[in-house]
């Protein structure tokens, strides 16, 4: 990819990327009760990284995100499977999810659900896979 | 879950930690020492069952696996499965002990070796204990797979790969045939349990069914391929490329006997019919003769042993066939006379495992010490390796059927059985029966000859060493322990046959013929001396003629050269394999053109034909507008915009315009979701659309210039027909989906998502909770696809880099 030299897009995306990241995390967390969830949150996160690819070059991004996205994807699947196995250890069928309400110091009465753990796995798998694909295609010159 | 289940699963569980043990300790301790304890423990555990089993008890333990499909991991233990399991664990322990000295811990990939070995051990134990036919089948194929891996253990050798592929192709072919046969059995008897098939009610249903014969032949195909019966025997000699401990364990003592086990296990179902009698006996006898005649001409020690194994397996198989005649006579005295053959089969099976295991290990020692297994290069080892020589004599003479070794007893019983079979009055035996003892006798002569070749060609004669850089000497003591134990057994069984028979053989005999066992006991006294019986005279003839023929082998050896090379089974196998490859390559090249456009044509044409065909035949088209809401202005506007962008794709002159137009189309669809109040879908669609458009732009750089396709008219017509067809079909499906309601809506269940899953967002609750397993598998597929893309691109880049380097 050629070195983009567009001041406008650089300035905008520096701000926009932060907003998109925040939005992605918001989408992920709100998924339990409102539109959103692991899949959308993960994809939104990747789209922010893709924006960075387009604005800066791929090496810069790789330097700032020094992780192997293949590992992230595998980790996501592993987390999802392990939450299922965890249910089995407690004597209920594979992938049974549980939730309950707790009184936490700052948040007050809060719902905690094991489904969120599963969703983290989904999000990581989506981020890892999409970025693996995009980076290998973008890298291919 | 019972302890027997745990025992079957232990090798598998232990196999998972073997690589770690190898990594951690292999510098100091040979990995085999850890593995060694598994078969020893299993053996010790199995020993505790002997009093119960020899007392006539059997065990049935059920672990539910797929209860809704009636598939349970049911374990059935009787004398037959116990004797097999004892062989598996016992010989397994000896083989692991032997391998510790045979496989160098510095040079060999021991973690692979022991993982495969344990996998095999577990699969084999599961096979002999399974009562459910599907579980049995799974273990059956697992033994094929682990055998494949072990034959190809030295995978850089061309011959290992060839042998592994051959064994895999043949045994898996048989396994699939067997599966079909087992399913037929299940259809006839309406149960998946072998035990339940044996109830008289089910047995009647099976024997009177027209599927009886096809099921029998299919199952026998499985048994014959696994047990290397003629003409499927060709894989066994090539399997000798595996390390020698493996040849001793899988390819002579246990795995190749799985077919025998199956035949024995199913004898109560199929036995007593003429077809079973003649197929099993006939194939067994032909194999016996084929194996022994071919063994004589081998020059490689392991090849000789392989053919001798084929021949001995044929012997056991034919005994099972002859013994099955007993079931024809019901419960009379006659049936007990003929059932002796079954007893002989089990007896010889155990004896074969002991002496052949011993022989393989000695051959391994010779190979290890001298560096060759070629009979033409060996000779005169007697003074250098006296212990190995003694062991070889014990094993070889037992195989030849000489006293005082256990092979003599079972060989005599085999002659008895053939003579009895020849006198049977059923199945047309009055006319053809005389053939059986004749073949048996001729084959025994050849067996005698190759046993003598094995013993004397290697250890007597002149020194002819190839390896001069290292003095040849006796093997280390550790390597001799295992064959020594087997040799002691060979002699011990000869002197205490009745004790052995009471605790091991008779319970196994009862397992093969449970209905006879209920009617009475088989009274059989084994002793070396029976007086001047016809059997003894036959043996004397074998020995006399055998010695003569061995001494004058040069005179008649030439007859082997007259057999045309083009007609051997191996030539036929290679020829058909090559041709199949060529043919399938041609067929594949016909439609795998490398153009994605062609593949899309196949996919879309398929959709049109299948979906359209179903619609046409079942009259699925309905169109109902009565309940539709009015079309409002936003929807109309969106549809018009979508049509415009779709048409733009068709007529645009540049690729960039097309990409943007497709992107626009996607965004417009997501607006539809917004209009129909589906925020989750809209969000997903938006993000997916964004990412794919960006991806497209990334690829854009690499894509060739968009040019107008100037195709011929037929080409354009095909494309037009297919695209219009797909459009029409999808529209029709969409319109009809609303008007047709085959089932009640299931959405009401999910409406309670807040109570059931604590989530207000139904969509997400479905994704992560209600249908969690779907999501889990989806992300798995997603990840695999991602890795696939990564691999494809990286591989291409690596190849390009290499090419550039070469230039």
UniProtKB/TrEMBL annotation, chain A:
UniProt subcellular location: Cell membrane
A cellular component term, taken from the record's GO annotations: plasma membrane
InterPro entries: CPA3_antiporter_subunitB, MnhB
Na+/H+ antiporter MnhB subunit-related protein domain mapped to chain residues: 9-131
Pfam families: MnhB
Residue spans crossing the bilayer: 12-31, 37-59, 71-95, 115-137
Keywords, sorted A to Z: Cell membrane, Membrane, Transmembrane, Transmembrane helix
Protein name: Na(+)/H(+) antiporter subunit B
Organism: Robertmurraya siralis
UniProtKB/TrEMBL annotation, chain B:
Keyword field contains Transmembrane: yes
MrpA C-terminal/MbhD domain residues: 641-705
Gene Ontology CC entries for this record: plasma membrane
InterPro entries found in the cross-reference section: CPA3_Na-H_Antiporter_A, MrpA/MnhA1/PhaAB, MrpA_C/MbhD, MrpA_C/MbhE, ND/Mrp_TM, Proton_antipo_N
Compartments, as annotated in UniProt: Cell membrane; Membrane
Pfam families, per database record: MbhD (PF13244), MbhE (PF20501), Proton_antipo_M (PF00361), Proton_antipo_N (PF00662)
Transmembrane segments: 6-22, 34-53, 73-101, 113-129, 135-155, 167-186, 206-225, 246-264, 276-293, 305-330, 336-366, 378-400, 434-456, 477-496, 536-553, 599-619, 631-651, 658-676, 682-703, 715-737, 775-793
Domain NADH-Ubiquinone oxidoreductase (complex I) chain 5 N-terminal: 67-108
Superkingdom as given in the UniProt entry: Bacteria
Example GO biological process: proton transmembrane transport
Limits of the NADH:quinone oxidoreductase/Mrp antiporter transmembrane domain: 130-427
Membrane topology per record: Multi-pass membrane protein
GO MF term list: antiporter activity
Keyword vocabulary terms for this entry: Antiport, Cell membrane, Hydrogen ion transport, Ion transport, Membrane, Sodium, Sodium transport, Transmembrane, Transmembrane helix, Transport
Domain MrpA C-terminal/MbhE: 718-794
Main location: membrane
Keyword Heme: no
Similarity field: Belongs to the CPA3 antiporters (TC 2.A.63) subunit A family.
Protein name: Na+/H+ antiporter subunit A
Originating organism: Robertmurraya siralis
């Amino acid at each position: 990819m050629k070195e983009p030299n567009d001041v406008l897009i650089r300035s905008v995306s520096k701000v926009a990327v932060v907003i998109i990241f925040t939005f992605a995390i918001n989408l992920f967390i709100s998924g339990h009760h409102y539109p959103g969830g692991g899949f959308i949150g993960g994809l939104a996160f990747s789209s922010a990284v893709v924006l960075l690819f387009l604005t800066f070059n791929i090496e810069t991004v790789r330097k700032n995100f020094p992780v192997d996205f293949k590992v992230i994807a595998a980790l996501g699947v592993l987390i999802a499977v392990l939450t299922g196995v965890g249910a089995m250890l407690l004597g209920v069928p594979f992938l049974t999810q549980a939730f309950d309400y707790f009184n936490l110091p700052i948040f007050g009465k809060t719902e905690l659900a094991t489904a969120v753990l599963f969703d983290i796995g989904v999000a990581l798998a989506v981020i890892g896979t999409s970025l693996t694909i995009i980076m290998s295609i973008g890298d291919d010159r | 879950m019972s302890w027997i289940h745990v025992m079957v699963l232990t090798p598998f569980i232990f196999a998972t930690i073997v690589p770690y043990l190898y990594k951690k300790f292999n510098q100091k301790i040979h990995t085999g020492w850890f593995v060694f304890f598994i078969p020893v423990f299993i053996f010790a555990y199995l020993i505790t069952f002997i009093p119960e089993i020899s007392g006539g008890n059997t065990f049935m333990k059920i672990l539910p696996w797929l209860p809704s499909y009636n598939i349970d991991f049911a374990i059935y233990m009787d004398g037959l499965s116990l004797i097999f399991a004892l062989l598996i664990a016992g010989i397994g322990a000896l083989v692991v002990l032997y391998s510790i000295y045979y496989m160098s811990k510095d040079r060999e990939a021991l973690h692979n070796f022991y993982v495969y070995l344990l996998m095999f051990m577990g699969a084999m134990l599961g096979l002999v204990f399974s009562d459910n036919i599907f579980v049995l089948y799974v273990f059956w194929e697992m033994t094929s797979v682990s055998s494949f891996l072990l034959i190809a253990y030295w995978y850089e050798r061309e011959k290992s790969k060839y042998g592994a592929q051959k064994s895999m192709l043949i045994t898996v072919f048989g396994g699939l045939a067997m599966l079909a046969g087992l399913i037929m059995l299940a259809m006839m008897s309406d149960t998946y349990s072998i035990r339940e098939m044996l109830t008289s009610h089910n047995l009647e249903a099976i024997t009177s069914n027209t599927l009886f014969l096809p099921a029998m032949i299919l199952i026998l195909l499985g048994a014959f391929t696994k047990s290397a019966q003629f003409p499927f025997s060709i894989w066994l000699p090539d399997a000798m490329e595996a390390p020698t401990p493996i040849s001793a364990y899988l390819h002579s003592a246990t795995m190749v006997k799985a077919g025998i086990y199956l035949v024995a296990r199913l004898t109560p179902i199929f036995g007593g019919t003429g077809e079973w009698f003649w197929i099993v006996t006939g194939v067994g006898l032909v194999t016996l003769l084929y194996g022994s005649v071919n063994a004589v001409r081998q020059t490689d020690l392991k090849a000789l042993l392989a053919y001798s194994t084929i021949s001995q397996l044929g012997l056991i198989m034919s005994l099972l066939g002859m013994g099955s005649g007993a079931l024809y006579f019901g419960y009379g005295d006659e049936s007990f006379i003929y059932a002796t053959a079954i007893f002989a089969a089990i007896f010889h099976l155990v004896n074969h495992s002991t002496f052949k295991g011993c022989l393989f290990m000695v051959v391994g020692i010779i190979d290890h010490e001298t560096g060759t297994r070629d009979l033409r290069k060996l000779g005169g080892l007697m003074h250098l390796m006296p212990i190995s020589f003694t062991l070889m004599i014990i094993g070889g003479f037992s195989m030849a059927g000489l006293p005082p070794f256990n092979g003599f007893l079972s060989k005599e019983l085999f002659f008895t059985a053939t003579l009895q079979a020849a006198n049977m009055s059923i199945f047309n035996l009055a006319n053809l029966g005389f053939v059986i003892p004749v073949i048996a006798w001729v084959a025994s002569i050849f067996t005698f000859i190759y046993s003598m070749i094995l013993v004397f060609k290697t250890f007597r004669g002149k020194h002819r060493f190839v390896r001069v850089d290292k003095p040849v000497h006796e093997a280390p003591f550790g390597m001799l322990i295992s064959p020594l134990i087997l040799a002691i057994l060979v002699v011990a069984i000869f002197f205490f046959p009745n004790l052995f028979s009471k605790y091991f053989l008779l319970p196994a005999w009862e397992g093969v013929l449970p209905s006879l066992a209920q009617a009475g006991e088989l009274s059989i006294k084994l002793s070396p001396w029976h007086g001047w019986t016809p059997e003894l005279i036959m043996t004397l003839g074998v020995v006399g003629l055998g010695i003569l023929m061995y001494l004058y082998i040069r005179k008649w050896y030439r007859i082997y050269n007259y057999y045309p090379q083009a007609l051997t089974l191996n030539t036929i196998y290679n020829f058909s394999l090559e041709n199949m490859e060529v043919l399938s390559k041609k067929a594949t090249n016909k439609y795998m053109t490398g153009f994605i456009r062609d593949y899309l044509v196949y996919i879309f044409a398929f959709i049109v034909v299948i979906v359209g065909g179903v619609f046409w035949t079942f009259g699925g088209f309905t169109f109902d507008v009565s309940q539709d809401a009015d079309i409002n202005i936003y929807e109309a506007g969106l549809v018009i915009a979508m049509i415009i962008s779709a048409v733009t794709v068709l007529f645009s002159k540049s690729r960039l315009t097309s990409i943007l137009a497709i992107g626009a189309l996607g965004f417009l669809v997501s607006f539809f979701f917004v209009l129909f109040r589906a925020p989750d879908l809209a969000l997903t669609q938006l993000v997916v659309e964004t990412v794919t458009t960006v991806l497209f732009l990334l690829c854009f750089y690499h894509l060739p210039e968009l040019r107008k396709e100037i195709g011929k008219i037929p080409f354009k017509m095909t494309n037009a027909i297919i695209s219009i067809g797909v459009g029409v079909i999808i529209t029709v499906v969409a319109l009809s989906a609303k008007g047709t309601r085959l089932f009640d809506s299931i959405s009401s269940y999910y409406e309670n998502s807040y109570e059931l899953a604590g989530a207000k967002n139904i969509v997400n609750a479905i994704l992560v909770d209600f249908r969690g397993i779907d999501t889990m598998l989806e992300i798995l597929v997603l990840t695999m696809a991602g890795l696939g893309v990564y691999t494809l691109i990286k591989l291409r880049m690596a190849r390009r880099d290499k090419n550039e380097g070469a230039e």
